Structures
1.
Amino acid sequence: MDKGHGRKEIRTIWVRDDLQGYLKFPHAKCAFRLQRYVTDLEGKFLRAEVVYGVTSMAGTDRTAAKRLLKNVRGHWTIENRLHYVRDMSFDEDRSQIRKGMGPQVMASLRNVAISALRVAGARYIAKALRWCGRNLARGLRLLGLA
């Protein structure tokens, strides 16, 4: 159970690891069903969700289920971290590129820039972008082109 952002969320997970010969999916060791019940802080029902997944994690014991719940919950940390950076550092939401493959290409280029900076150890992407922007050779060095 989690409480925050004006709501309470209860998550229940069921895990199965007897997939041998049943599921033709590379490296699949475990399937799960995650059920979420969300209410506001007063207990008024907001929504119920069911999510199914397949993972390479093994085990159906309580420890594995808790670890899997933590990983599923942590997925949004990754999503929010990337999309927030793309919007704040590149002002992506106001982009005027809307035709053909342009938006996808630009999103990919932004992801490459963010990934290269993170691999290089940048903690603050905006600061690292300014640092690279002051000298073209720095950015090229990060990409292995100089």
2.
Amino acid sequence: MSGRNYQKIINHYEDCLRKFGDNHKGVDWPNQEDALLRYKVMLDIVMPGIRCSLLDFGCGTAHLYDYIVKCGFKDIEYTGLDISNNFIQVCMSKHKQINFINCDILKSPEKIGKFDYIIMNGIFTVKRELLFNEMVEYFEDLVKVVFTKANIGIAFNVMTKHVDWEREDLFHLPFDLLAAFLKQEVSRNFVIRNDYGLFEYTVYVFKEPNIWHR
């Protein structure tokens, strides 16, 4: 499948890690303030006060876990996953008590168990040299597989089409295309968040209706 030519994206993030190290630029976020805002928005999918398991899909160097600890979220049982062994090695050196998984879920879905929530922060914002249709195919393949591993729901972000100009290396996904795909192939129970000031939007997709109620 053409959309599975995603090694270019992995190579890009590994280049960022080599160049910048373990910080927001090492996972290709331009600034720390916006990165922290994304962590907050992603975690808003989680119902407070109820213990849950959470998979940080594409965990990078586990900055989401650092944010969870800093904010004192005691009810989240965190697991990190990344396709890149380079990132996983950094994670394991920092957090020896945490379970980290090095896996390509499109090739080995059986290696991933079930989690209440799955967060996919930054997985679909960069497309690099992939054509738009290739990136759409990759996006759809990955969302469908990941959703089968979630008990409650998943969260992911993409770049918005509603900007003054679009970067060729970023994935700007129209609302209508997204909604049609989710309704037909994943779930009609979803929330689109375009309210936090960045040139992107975040989507929560649930197994059942009326769960997200903030």
3.
Amino acid sequence: MKIIGHRGAKGLAPENTVASFLKALAHNADEIECDVRLTAERVLVLSHNRFISDSSGNKLVVAEHNYLELKAHKPDLTTLQEAILSVNKQRPLLIEVKSSDVIQPLIKLLKQRLRGGWQASDFRLASFHFKTLRALADALPEIQLVVNDRWSGVRATSRGRRLGTRRLAMNRLWLWSGFIAALSRGGWELYAYTVNDRRLAKRWAKSGLKGIVTDFPDKFDAKWDNNKHEGGF
């Protein structure tokens, strides 16, 4: 079973920051997930929400402010470029695209990285939106796509077939062992988010769950064996 650090290692350091990615690397996460949005002057930055909050409680919508304005309110605001360089090919970076305005700048940046020594296997591209995934697949067919869906296995597998990917990610709240086993028998690679319970992960691994997205990769590090990429606790 693969362990994916959620927004780096959200439970161990501020999410979507270099510090969080370094924590995920230190605890041997197999992949590192992050969320990408676009500033007013089209800089790709990491933020799960549409806005960032500062220590005084002010909220700034990412798309309405430039990078330096946002950075002044959130000093650890991280660009996607910084994230890529901090991970530096040590693990694949799983990039979740949060809005359609991200698509073209992201394509441009990843093509630059691919020309600069990075491999397609250094990246994964995820979204909840079919049109976003289609645009990314058309421009970057060599990079693996991940179909995100909160609850519908029917919708997720339909999109996966249309996009030519077998990898799905679904909310753990809607998953159960029988459903996981059925998808696994059908050849789907199912990942659950967000799982911080080792016992639950172990039980679902036996049903065929391919991996988990977790806030605490350290919980899955100490007893993880050398064959973790092939599955098993």
4.
Amino acid sequence: MEKKFKRLVLKTFGLKRITSLLYFGTRAFVGANCDSDYDFMLILDKYNPTDIFKLRKVCQSTQFKDLDLNVNFLYLSDIKARGFRNFQLRSLRIDFYKYLENAIVLVGRNIFKKNSLKMSRRKLIDLMDFKIQEHYGRCDKMFLQNLKDEILYKNIKKYIKGIIRFILIREDVMTFSDITKYSFNDIFDLAADSKIFTPSTSAKFTSLSKDYSGKKSLEVLDSVRRSVYETYLNLYSNNS
């Protein structure tokens, strides 16, 4: 699918205007996964009033209609005006930047890898603390929304996997760049080997590879979420 998207973007904007077309996220880093959407970052040279409408047409193409397509869009001139160290896309900042440093290049070059940001250990921990709490709270919010159980299950599972990954980065078991190397099964093995999680919590990770099979599976999934979060709270208390 990423090849189809690349071809259509190239046809729409032309090679000269595309600074970067990057492919990132779980599907790009750890392989096809039905729980994950397709994440792209398109960076064009400079503002043109027709660009957003052209890109909208690309995203609404019938060949992508049944896919979870997540396209991010910026201009190189705007990024440079703020400076790479002040990069921001919506509410996404340093953590998103670090993902982009490891993104797969479909067209152009990876400007984020070329301008890699350095982060202190304290800054990294603070960032992971924020992301873990944000993911956990987002799950609470989704439980209280009018979502079909199957959709809720898929999303909660995705955020639990994210929390586990953030905990491992926080505890220096893996790095941002490791995201491109490890499948989620590898990450679960890392988590078990690290002894960060209790054996009973690690044993629950098998639930994260299962599909929705009824309301009981949703209850099981939330028990995994709580166990993972309690592990984090103990780590947070000890660090504090």
